[in-house]
Amino acid sequence: MTTTPTATSSSRPLRTALAKGTALVALAWACPVLAQQAAPAALPETPAPAAAPTPSTGEIVVTGSRITSSGFSAPTPTQVLSAAVIAKSAQPNIFTTIAQLPSLQGSTGATYGTNSTSSGTQGLSSFSLRGLGPIRTLTLLDGQRVVGANVTGVPDISLFPQLLVDRVDVVTGGASASYGSDAVGGVVNFVTNTHFEGFKANAQNGITTYGDDYNYTFQAAAGKSFMDGRLHVVVSGEYSHENGVPAYGFGEGPGPNGRDWYETETLINTGLHTDGRPQYRNSKHAQAYQYTKYGLITAGPLQGIAFDQSGKPFNFVYGSNGVPDKNAAGTVTGCNNGFCVGGDLSGNVGNGTSLQSEITRTNGYGRIGFDIDNDNEVYATVNVARVTSNNTPNPGAAKANSLTLQCSNPFVPTSIQDLCAANGITSFKYGVSNAVLPQFINVNPVREQYRFVAGAKGKIPFLGSDLHYDAYVEHGENITDITVSNITLNARYNAAIQAVRLNDGTIACADPAARASGCVPLNIIGGATPSAATLAYITPAHGPHQHTRQTQDVASIAFNNQPFSTWAGPVSLAFGGEWRHEYYRVKGDPYGNGVTASNPNTADYPADPLLNTAGNNWYAGNYHDGSGKYSVYEGFLEANLPLVDTPGAGKANLNLAGRATHYSTSGTVYTWKIGGTWQTPVDGIRLRAVTSRDVRAPNLSELYAAPITVTVPGLTNPFNNNQPVTVQQNTIGNTALKPEIARNTEAGVVLSRPGWAPGLNLSVDYYRIKVKGVVSSLSAQQEVNYCYGGVTQLCSAFDLNAATPYVNVQAFNLASIFTDGFDIEASYQFRLDSLKLPGNLTLRALATNVRNYITDIGLPNTIPTQGAGVNAGATPKWKVLATESWDTDNFSLTFTQRWFSAGKISNEYIECQTNCPVQTAQQATLHPTIDNNRMPGAFYFDVGATYNVTKAITAYAKVDNLFNHDPAASPQTNTGIDVNPLLYDVLGRMYRIGVRASF
Q1: How many CA atoms lie within 13 A of 291 on its CB side?
Q2: Which residues of 831-850 are buried (b: 16+ CB within 10 A; e: fewer)?
Q3: For residue 803, what is the DSSP state?
Q4: Can you give the residue ranges of every domain in the chain?
Q5: What is the DSSP letter of 818?
Q6: pTM score, two decimals?
Q7: Could you give the angle at the alpha carbon of 586 between the alpha carbons of 583 and 587, nearest 5°?
Q8: Is the pLDDT of residue 845 over 90?
Q9: Helix/strand/coil percent split, the chain, to 5
Q10: How far apart are CA 667 and CA 771, in angstroms?
Q11: CB contact at 8 A, 32 and 992
Q12: Confidence label for 69 from pLDDT (cuts 50, 70 and 90)
């Protein structure tokens, strides 16, 4: 493979272009004043302005439909963000701006997945509409599909050419009949300026109030026409870097650079009670009592003896007035389920998770188009981009009560050896955070995208009318390399900590076979820095590695025409077909995947008799080989039928669409849409409604998931008095999966610029989505809990008593999702002449109310769960985005408010402090009692300003989260990082300044 050298060489001209293209902007970089574009742009029509002129043809394109007739009004609500609105947001990644829309719930960005080693989502920017997840949101670039940046098929917005984006259309309803699979929650379509003329550039930097996440962005684009305007060339280049907020270390706090909100808020399981007390206690300052920063004896007669950094023993302070029981189980009186409250908190690991990944984005884009005549164009585009990110999921490699040390180990202090002898023991159980390791675990994903499109579009005479066509072929390729460093090999670590003193007085590994293979002993009692040889042995330079190649090939053609007219106007038709092929292959390193003929030991991963040739040798990040592919053939037909167009009855139309899709993996499925709009005789009032059958086909990951094995510490074992157990979680694919089927219904009323208020737009829409056959899998903890609660079908998926406890996780068409609610959008724009002020004032607000978000697992003896208003998830009851913008010829001032309502940790909890209901074990699994189930909402206030230095140069500034609102705790049942980045701002106040140029 020559992938990496190719990517490297391709990035050099891109960097050169960026340097040249932003030279002018760099001269004004130090300017501290903020600005927007020279001329303020009016907001698009608020209630789903589904139509906007394309730069190239001037035709009206309606997003959410394939009909392109200028007289057509789509029934599917659409929210539009113009380039001017996007620029005012002043974000280094356009993804952040779009993700703030209330209808987008659960979108993932640089603050998501930072506690993960193996998910592959670190630094991945992907949209989620309606909280249905990125896999049920179709993201397009100029109406075309984009190759996935992850085996789930989800593209990475960071890889899009962002400076050329002319607008973003967000279709908040099912659109599978028009656009195909994945459009269950809706469509996000990025529309670029394909015929841009001139030169423009943007330079920006920013930093948080805590002095971290320093970021800078450089963007430049140029376009020019040749050959009397027939040849159009557009190029752009971008470079953006965000330092992120790295891991801070062990203990509770203060957090990174003074963030004092991290308080290890944890849900402690106190067990079932008959005296009215709740099962779960929502507690701050929780600590796990199975390990400490520099080591703790966790069971037996010496339980409770801890060690400081120098290795000196002391009596550990448990918190909760906990007293170690000094039994074989290692229980602590006064503490519950492995946790105490207060005491010595120095060993907590949650503070050591990155708050935001470091991310670097490099992007090059070019388009060349040639007009065959005035009505027809052929074109080609190329997009080469690279995104790298870094995060720390865990500061060390915590071992929770899982180690056994021999009393004779020469690293054990003499005083402890004497106590061993006095108590008649030769070994003891031991837990440690592994703060002894000098470097934190680091995960470094690198995604490279190569996307090529060739197409033709225009119109030709056909049967007395114009037949419009749009055809393209696309080849996309994404190469992802994930490298993990500073992580231990389990077998080597276990061998290194078992030390003996040899006859010559030297300390060595106890196992002769380990010594023969290069084992160097490790002292985990105290915090003495291990030798370089020890670190090289237990954390080799070449850690876990995963290489993924993913390709997408598309051939598509679509036609539009108006073959005839009725009494109410011309009938419009759209029809066409598409072929698509998706493929991926992933390869893991031989220590994680296992040694095979195609994946043998190498110089970087030499053979070691201590390691399992079947793989799964790393503490985490055990990547496995896998591959898969599928093909799709589909055809669609859509029609707009005018029903009435008279002054007395208004104007109404009926929109119909159907699509047949054949998947090579699961057969044929049909989707359809029926909708209509009525422009009533009442001034400015339009009614709209649409219902559709939509699908999402299982993706490559669900069908052909490379077996992934991760270590899950602290899984609660209800079969053993809720004691924690470390398990191996094995995730595997399922080729028998079928497409998910959704029914999507929306109905609303639109008030658009009535004569009595020409600047007013208002819309209210009700939405209802039911998805059946949802591809889903239970978590390892859920499988165990439901088996314990009586769902015996799941009991064969795990064995917690095996020598290596494990849980197998696999996807099935088990579940269903039901969600409904309201979208409200309003705007009002007016000139300020009456106040003797220059310019316009624009007010805009968007709100989404989630009435229900019900997930039914689909298993016997289980009940549906209500996710609406769960602030530990992604669907609060209310989410609002509001802006007020004063725009003049010389400056603009914009205020933005982001708000979501207070909610709960889970709607399944029963909140009570006293007189709680007595529950059986099964009832406690489904509806446990809790003393505090509340989570607050949040209000964020942003302010931005622009100033036109010249007609071509604009300076701007932006402050996000002006009042530095801290995130609320999202308590869990472990001591992981306890915030929810899907809802809460985890960074704090952010300052940005920049300058734009346009010639």
Answers
A1: 26
A2: eeeeeeeebbbbbbbbbbbb
A3: S
A4: 290-334+401-429+506-538
A5: E
A6: 0.88
A7: 150
A8: yes
A9: 10, 45, 45
A10: 19
A11: no
A12: low
